[in-house]
Amino acid sequence: MTYSSDIAFTPAIKAIQTRKGSRTGYAKMEERGGWRTAIAGDVAAFIAAQTSVFLATANAEGQPYIQHRGGPPGFIRVLDEKTLAFADFKGNRQFITQGNLAENPKAYLFLIDYMNRQRIKIWGEARVVEDDAALIASLMPENYEARPEQAILFTVHAWDSNCPQHIPQRFEAADVARALAARDQRIAELEAEVARLKGSASAPPASAAAAHSAL
C-alpha cells in the first residue's frame, strides 16, 4: 500500500518517526488517504492570492537549490487541479533552476502568507517552456513591468499545509499603506466634524442675532 505522503515520508523518515513517537499519528493520516493531490477550493484561492513563492530543485547529484519568484497576486496560475504555472522573468541569468530541471524534474513549492500565518507545501515535477510565446504571454500579469523569458509548468503530486506555530506575523507594505491612508482619511473627517461643531457652538442663536441687529 502506498500513499501520496510517501513522496516525503521515505522508509528512513518513517523509521525516525517511529523512534521519536510520531509514526502512529501519521499512519492514521495515511489510512485516511494521505496528503491531498488536487489543487482546488481554498488552496487554489490561497495560491492565487500569493505574491511570493520559493521553488526548490536539485541537480542529478542531489545538490539542492532554492529560488525565489514573486509578482502581483495571481502571478501563479492554477491551470487545472494538477497543474500550476507562472511566467519566469529575466533575472541574474545563472539558470541554476533550469539546469537542475534539465537533469532532475523533481521540484517543490513553498508558499507562506505571513499576515495570516499560513503555509502550503507542494511536491511535484516542473519543466521549463521556452518556445511557446502564446503560453508565456498568457501567464504575464496584466500591466506588470517585467520581462518574461520563459514559463515554468509545475505538475502537482501532493500537497500539505502546516500549523501557524512559529510563523512571525508580517504585513505587506501595500496593505499597511492602505490601512494608514484609511486611518488618515477618517481622522481628517473627524477633525472637520469637530471644527464644524465648534463653529456651531460659538455662533449666537438666530433669535439673539436678530435682536442684536434690531438694536
Describe this structure in words.
There is one protein chain. Helix content is 38%, strand content 28%. The protein is of the alpha+beta class and 215 residues long. The chain folds into 3 domains: 1-34, no CATH class; 36-162, Electron Transport, Fmn-binding Protein, Chain A (Pnp Oxidase, Chain A, Roll); 173-203. A hairpin with a 5-residue loop joins strand 1 (52-58) and strand 2. The model has no long low-confidence stretch (mean pLDDT 92).
Please give a handful of descriptors for the protein shown:
215 residues; alpha+beta; Pnp Oxidase, Chain A; 3 domains; seven-stranded antiparallel β-sheet; 7 helices; extended
- The structure class reads alpha+beta
CATH class membership of the largest domain: Mainly Beta
Strand order of the largest sheet: 2-1-5-6-7-4-3
Helix content: 25-40%
Amount of beta strand? 25-35%
For this structure, the CATH topology of the largest domain is Pnp Oxidase, Chain A
Tell me the CATH superfamily of the largest domain.
Answer: Electron Transport, Fmn-binding Protein, Chain A
> How much is the average pLDDT?
92
Q: Which consecutive residue ranges, at least 5 long each, have pLDDT under 50? A: none
| Record field, number of beta strands | 7
Reported for the largest beta sheet, the result is: 7 strands, antiparallel
Question: What's the tally of helices?
Answer: 7
Number of domains: 3
Quaternary status of these chains?
single chain
| C-alpha geometry | extended
Order of helices and strands: HHHEEEEHEEHEHH
What is the CA–CA distance across the termini?
A: 104 Å
